[in-house]
Design brief:
The chain is of the alpha+beta class. The protein has eight helices and 21 strands. Strands 1-2-5-3-21 form a five-stranded mixed beta sheet, with helices on one face.
Length: about 350
Amino acid sequence: MQENVELQALNTFGLSARARYFCVVDTLAALQGALRFAHEKQLPVFILGGGSNILLRDNVPGLVLHMLIKGIAKLSEAEGSVRVQVSCGENWHAFVTYCLAQGWHGLENLALIPGSVGAAPIQNIGAYGVEAGELIESVTALNTVTGTIETIAAADCAFAYRDSVFKRQYRGSRIILSVVFLLHRSTKVNVSYASLAQALAGTPAPQPADVFAAVVAIRRSRLPDPALLGNAGSFFKNPVIGISEYASLQQRHADLPGHESSDSDVRQVKVPAAWLIERAGWKGRRLGQAGVYEKQSLVLINHGAARAEEIVALAQAISRDVEQQFGILLEPEVQWVPGTKHGDFAMYLPQEL
């Protein structure tokens, strides 16, 4: 247990902020001990993984738990499929790379996404036509209210676009320990996403390794390396609007892209936030040391010495302009810490365990 710990190196935006208390958690016993400490001192708890999807707006009160529980294990194998359990503290891209090397397929479209495995179910991370929830069989979590370990089936995780039960009714009461993925041995691949299909157009019968390599190449060409330009990946979600609202907007903006969303029984259209931000005139612009990445307007960047308030001001200015021009309110994908009405902040209030 440490006090007054600087978190700048532990968040990919590279923002300076301090944790009142800080503890590295590499075992279940360490987690339980840290939660008892928090309960005794009546401290709120913040769970920190890879630090890739957060905006540290200020110092973090209470106790920050840096989840580094490691382990990958093949649970069982059937004809054409394999069940793999991976601990929350494993690096996501390293896990995807490991699976590919083992001949366990399905995750290759999700290569090079920053962060830890434990965050994958919470956010239901997705890219290039695949979402993690499609391949998750179950999630094991610690119930911070009862102190029990629970196995939550994928069907009960309410996976949706960048959403899950862990961001809603389980927020603040479940800490993810591990995830079981159901992967396949087949070399069949998903190249339905337009830019991925284009990248592989010259590859006859692409294999999982080809998809992995193409995804890595695309991401590296479009997204900044956090080690060089601090960022948290896609800052905003792609908004989902009603079919009639989309039709109305198309009358004024004939080139407005969109595709129907399958996350609802009601006909809705998902609109690219990057298009809205770029059309609103923000691509490549900056406010102080905070800016919009010149190659991908969905990414806000730290030009080197940005303060949290500059990134907040930039995000709010973009949201305001998009709403004024298109009548669409952008919702942050990044978690704001400490939270406001603009974003989520899952602080746990531990019971006596």
